[in-house]
Each structure stands twice: as structure tokens, then as C-alpha cells.
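Board notes (copied after class):
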Amino acid sequence: MNPESPNSLATPQGALQESNTDYEFLRSDSISYDARGIDDQNEKVQELKNTIKKLRCKERDTAEKIVKLNEKSLEYECKLKEKDDKIAKLESLIKLKEKKGIRIERLPGLEDFEAAFEDLPFAGPEWMVIQRRIDGTVSFNSFTFMHSFWLPNGLGNHEGEFWLGCGTLHKLTSSRRYELYIELVDFDNHTGFARYDNFVVGSENVDYALKSLGAYPGSAGDAMSGSVNEKFKHCERHYADLKKVWPWWAKSQCNLNGVYHSYKTDLADKSGIWWGKSNMGKRCFLKTCKMLIRPYLTI
């Protein structure tokens, strides 16, 4: 067959060119599509990198927060341990005080206060100690005692020398009927007592006057009845440049808040601790004294 004849099977030149043009177009389009795909992938990669960067920043922030939280947790644990230690010490102290008869007293109409209690062999249980003098370690004999805080609220140590306070005594004895027990010991270790069945202390408006004592039984003699309706005041004596002071009810034939002396002798004045005239009509120093009250028990 003649190759140049019209029926020849050879591809015409124009068709070949057209085919090449189509291929180039398809190839160019494919490259353009691939390029767009690569750009999309690059954008996604960059987004992922940015996301990773943000996550790492968050992870770092979270790690820092965890460190701070751990530090705070450790600080709180230390504080809790300190608190637990303090609570344990307080509980131990409370138990120790309770063994010694000291506890918190909670009564209607009164603020809670610490009080010492004793059982008396010949007078029964649950007496609240309101005054104790045993060694002179607490100064009852200065104007400090008459300070606006100490006078109503008391001073001293419940395990040693102390005074409960006139304000507290007023609130207690005006809330219900109380009896008073006074225990006395001299330097020969002779003991005596005085007991009154209706002890009432007045308010600050009447200078904590001794409003009532009630009936007296006892072995020491009635040395306080002369002070009924008398004010609780600061008495004083002057000896040259020396001033002796003591707080007690006026006109008493006793003084349990006087100047403490650690030896046996007769008193020349009323400034010491004494009760009546038990030594051939003379006043003698007492070694110890104690005042206690409890609600009056009707039989």
C-alpha cells in the first residue's frame, strides 16, 4: 500500500500535534493540581505545627501550674500538720487540766470561762474554786488588781493562786442560789471552815457589794457577815513611804486577799491574810485559804 495514499494508516501530522497539545494541557493541569495539593498539605502541616506549638505551650503552662499546685498542696499539708499538732497539744492540755479538775464552764446567759473544781471530803463534790491563796506568787496587792479588766474578770492561775473575778461572781450568784465554802489553814496546820448558804455578789453599779451570805455553820467562826451590803473596794494602809493595799469587802472581820506572808506571826494591822481573832484575840497570818461555791442543793 502506498503510504502517501489517502487511505494510508499513518497518523496525520495535525492529529499528532493536536494529541501532543492535549497531553501538554493535561500534564500542565495535573502539575497545577499537584501543586495545589502540595500547598494544601503544606498549610495543613503548618497548622499542625502551630497546633503542636500551642499544645506544647499549654503543656508547659499546665506543668507549671501542676508544680505550683504541688507546692501549695505541700504548704497546706504542712499547715494541716501544724494545726493537727496544735489540736493534739490542746487536747492533751485539756485532758491534763481535766485531771486537775479544770474545765470550761458553760452556763446559760454567760460567756464560756475556765473554772477549777474540787470534791471536798466533808462537803461533797463539784465545788467551783473562786479564790486560792497558797504561796504569794500572784500579786493581789496592787492597783493592777483593781484594773477595769482584772477586777471583774479575775487574775492568776487556776492551778495556783487566783481570783475568779467580781463580774463573773455577780453573774453566777445572780443567776441562781449558790452556797459558799471557805477553807482555812494556819501555820500550825490547823484547819477550819466557814460555810454560807446564800452567797450573792452585786453588780458593778453597786461596786460588787456583798448582797447576801445566808446562814452560817462552821468551825472557824463567822467573820464575814459584817460585810453584807458593803462594797468590794481597795483598802490601803500607809506606813511611812510604804503603802499596803488589798481588795476586799469593807468592814469584814477577815481579809483573804491581803498581803501574803510565808511565816507565822501576829498581825499588827488588817493588811495580811487572816480570819477573825483566833489567837487569844489576836489576828494571825494564814498559811493558805480557799473559797469555793456550788449551786445550793435543797434536800
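Comment from the instructor: The first strand starts at residue 102 and ends at 105. Residues 116-295 form a domain with the Gamma Fibrinogen; Chain A, domain 1 fold (CATH 3.90.215.10).
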